[in-house]
Amino acid sequence: MLKDILYSVLWNKCPKCHSTKVFETSVFQLKSFDKMHKTCSCCGEKYEKEPGYFYGAMYVSYALMAG
Ligand SMILES: [Zn+2]
Questions:
Q1: Region label for 36, one of left (φ > 0), alpha (ψ between -120 and 50) or beta (otherwise)
Q2: CA–centroid distance, residue 35 to ligand 1 (Å)
Q3: Where are the alpha helices (DSSP H) in the chain?
Q4: What pTM value is reported for the model?
Q5: How far is CA 56 from CA 3, 44, 61, 62, in A?
Q6: Mean predicted confidence (pLDDT) in 38-62
């Protein structure tokens, strides 16, 4: 689960179908983080059901990038 979310944040893809964007723009533009889609337009996956996972994964991603 967390691995899927991390994948989604890093590559900006739906954690379920991997075919649509989760965010309007790059997740590394913090100001755009609130532009996160609520659901996947392809498979209907609800991203907002586990917002904590996305924040956590973002934090890990930044740590990795800064690494
Ligand atoms: Zn999807």
A1: beta
A2: 16
A3: 2-11, 51-66
A4: 0.63
A5: 11, 22, 9, 10
A6: 81
- Cβ–Cβ < 8 Å for 9, 27: yes
Q: How far is the CA of 57 from the centre of ligand 1 (A)?
A: 18
Kindly tell me if the per-residue pLDDT of 43 is higher than 90: yes
Give 42's pLDDT tier (boundaries 50, 70, 90): very high
Ligand 1 mean position to 31 CA, how many Å?
23
Alpha carbon distances (Å) from 16 to 13, 19, 27, 39, 67 = 9, 8, 18, 11, 28
The answer to whether 41 touches 12, Cβ cutoff 8 Å, is: no
Residue 18, Cβ neighbours under 10 Å: how many?
Answer: 14
